[in-house]
Design brief:
Elements (H helix, E strand, L loop, with lengths): L20 H18 L3 H29 L2 H17 L11 H7 L5 H29 L4 H12 L5 H21 L5 H17 L5 H12 L8 H28 L3 H10 L2
Helix pairs in contact: 1-4, 2-3, 2-5, 2-9, 3-8, 5-9, 6-9, 7-8, 7-10, 9-10
Length: 273
């Protein structure tokens, strides 16, 4: 079924003054892209999610190799950024990238909550599947890095459920959602690569608690041998980090961004109701 277009001409909201045109144009682009993501057929959705896990897994490979050979986690974090550059240029998709674009489409009534839940669940599951495959190949092909993989994975397994780990997860969700917003400020691929490198370095260098990335690191440790933590530890870390990521992305970035264009939100909701 064809969705209604987001024409703003038929309704004017009295709420707030109008923002500068660039912000309104960015909002319109986000709504259109979110609509496309929410209505994506299942097979392409499975493929983009799986490839997103593969791309991040390549970043994990670079991180573990550099950290193993240099003993410096920050140099490893710098190497990891190749994963997010691949994610951008290959147009694959990460679970936490969907806390802004499709959410705005749902708020604008260009999609449903059920479609959003489908997008989140399928993308997360396929990110983890792709990441698991890459983690298995990495530890099988490069046995020398297994101790480094175990050390890196154990860090996230031992965080547990605490205010510290929650805030690390909130910060991770904030960083990735801000990355998404920064990339949508320009259509130039060269410009988009800059936040991909900078924000992914912050994510890994600060050891923030990111559901997909840290799951792949934990997979690498678990598949390396005696990791000192188990699959239930991974599952608990996944649930807790995903919750914190959602809070960070939705509350600290997306909801506040929407407050900048209340009239456009009202217009879209009116036109699509």
């Amino acid at each position: 079924m064809q969705r209604p277009s987001g024409s703003a001409a038929s309704f004017t909201s009295p709420v707030g003054a109008r923002e500068e045109p660039e912000i309104e144009e960015a909002f319109d682009r986000l709504v259109d892209e979110g609509d496309a993501r929410l209505s994506r057929p299942l097979l392409p959705l499975l493929a983009t999610g799986f490839l997103g896990g593969v791309d991040v897994g390549v970043g994990v490979l670079a991180y573990l190799v550099v950290r193993h050979h240099t003993g410096n986690p920050l140099l490893g974090a710098l190497a990891f950024t190749i994963g997010f550059v691949a994610l951008l240029m290959a147009r694959s998709e990460l679970f936490t990238e969907n806390f802004l674009v499709p959410v705005i489409a749902v708020v604008a009534k260009r999609g449903s909550v059920a479609e959003l839940a489908r997008l989140w669940l399928v993308t997360l599951a396929m990110n983890l599947a792709g990441g698991f495959v890459l983690a298995g190949m990495v530890v099988a092909a490069l046995p020398d890095i297994r101790p480094t993989a175990i050390e890196a994975g154990r860090h996230y397994a031992e965080l547990g459920m605490s205010w510290r780990s929650f805030f690390l997860a909130v910060l991770a969700g904030t960083v990735i959602t801000l990355l998404t917003r920064m990339q949508h400020a320009s259509d130039d691929m060269g410009v988009k690569i800059v936040p991909a490198v900078l924000m992914s370095f912050v994510l890994v260098g600060a050891e923030l608690f990111h559901s997909v990335l840290d799951s792949i690191l934990m997979f690498s440790g678990l598949l390396s041998g005696d990791a000192g933590y188990g699959w239930l530890d991974w599952l608990g870390a996944l649930a807790w980090s995903a919750f914190g990521n959602l809070v960070g992305g939705l509350v600290l970035v997306t909801s506040i961004r929407l407050l900048r264009v209340p009239h456009r939100v009202a217009e879209e909701r009116h036109d699509n109701s």
